[in-house]
């Protein structure tokens, strides 16, 4: 654990690591205080595309944590940056919340429900059969299919709920096209995180609750990994994977010892 605590920079997932829904997880206030006290560089890197950094900042403030918005980076921002670089000035049909649509708009991508260049899917509370039909039609007509993240489920106060990977699956199956996912474990998102932190991978650790996104992202980027059991993964499930985290802890508070 001393090797983990000595790292200069921490990349932390949010859902299942910092909170479940609107419930702060045990040990989180102490962990955040420690990051600040020890002058660590840290970034909350979330595969969720629902909220903008300012909204995430406000959510943590309601839960009693003071974290400036520059410490947040989302799969919505990563997706917007990727699409804008691939096709500047393009248009998209979007299934998702305001965090995603606003990120795309800010990156110069217009909304289009007639003949879009891309179909982009993130978490959505307004996911309907009609939206699936439109998305399938556009993909069949040549629109590129993008998912903000590959997560099948996400933890909430009510238990596990479908996430982007599950929501985009019917569109993939019906259109015959596979989606490209921008969020973790995509190395693009990890490189951006390191750039924002201003740290080398050797000086960084990623803390997450998912083996297939957080831990895989660290393994493939050669960043030290900590799996916490406060979210999606149980200790027994770790053995099903061909790779392992450097540390397995009950929650982020255990990093402090």
Highlighted features:
six-stranded parallel sheet; Ribonucleotide monophosphatase NagD; Rossmann fold; magnesium; 9 helices; 2 domains; alpha/beta; 257 residues
Could you describe the 3D structure shown?
Its cofactor is Mg(2+). Substrate binds at residue 184. Belongs to the HAD-like hydrolase superfamily. One of its GO terms (molecular function) is metal ion binding. The structure is a single chain. With 257 residues, this protein is an alpha/beta fold. The protein folds into two domains: 2-47 and 184-256, Rossmann fold (3-Layer(aba) Sandwich), CATH 3.40.50.1000; 76-181, Rossmann fold. Helix content is 35%, strand content 21%. The chain has nine helices and 15 strands. Helix 4 packs parallel to helix 5 (98-106). It is globular and about 55 Å long. The termini are close together. The mean pLDDT is 95.
Helix content: 25-40%
User: What's the architecture of the largest domain, going by CATH?
Assistant: 3-Layer(aba) Sandwich
User: What low-confidence regions span 5 or more consecutive residues with pLDDT below 50?
Assistant: none
Query: SSE order, as H and E?
Result: HEEEHEHEHEHEEHEEEHEHEHEE
The number of strands is: 15
Count of spatially separate domains: 2
User: What is the average of the pLDDT values?
Assistant: 95
Gross morphology is: globular
Radius of gyration in whole Å, from Cα?
18 Å
Count of separate DSSP helical elements: 9
- Oligomer designation: single chain
